[in-house]
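Milestone M4 deliverable, item 7.
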Amino acid sequence: PPPILPHGLPEQARHPVLRQLLQECALQQPEYRGGLSSHLPMALTALAGMGASEARLQAYAVEYSQRMSPLLSVTTPATSPDADWQALRGQIGAYPALLGYFQHQVTQQGADAVLRQVLPELMPGVGAAAFHGLIRLAYGVLAQSDSEIAAGLAYFAARYLDLGPLLPASGVVGGPDQQYLALAGKSPLLPPRDLIFASMQDASRLPGFAAQ
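Output delivered:
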């Protein structure tokens, strides 16, 4: 099969400072302010792709990082979850262990091989952090950054969000306006939540959701 990593940023956008800054992103907590996803690695990758200078990338990273906290530790490969990493899916507290595991796997096997092995186990929970797990991983692939691919996989796994099995369609429950109000948190069935993925969880528990 063709490799997963054939395309990425133009060579001129993959300058050393971007790689360095992405490595530093992997040393930060993936979230801030009680569950908001860091957009720093994605923003840096996008800026590089648009031709931003190294000075601009560095300045942006300094400014954005003021809201981030450093990881206190990353579990070493010797004590990482190895084959049992799936048991840690959906546990944000396991992010350091998952990061250590995926860093080790990417180093040992290469990013392409790890992605082929792991993505089938992660895609049922693609709603992770309101899709930000997948988004961060995708930008890591775009930048061809092993450190960001490992961080993206770890965040995807740590916020794994399985919304339940899909069932055969049984028709629309209510009109589009009713469904919109429910999903927007303006229905008694779905009270407002601070985080998008929490609202997604609430919506998945509504009667008839799986058949929509």
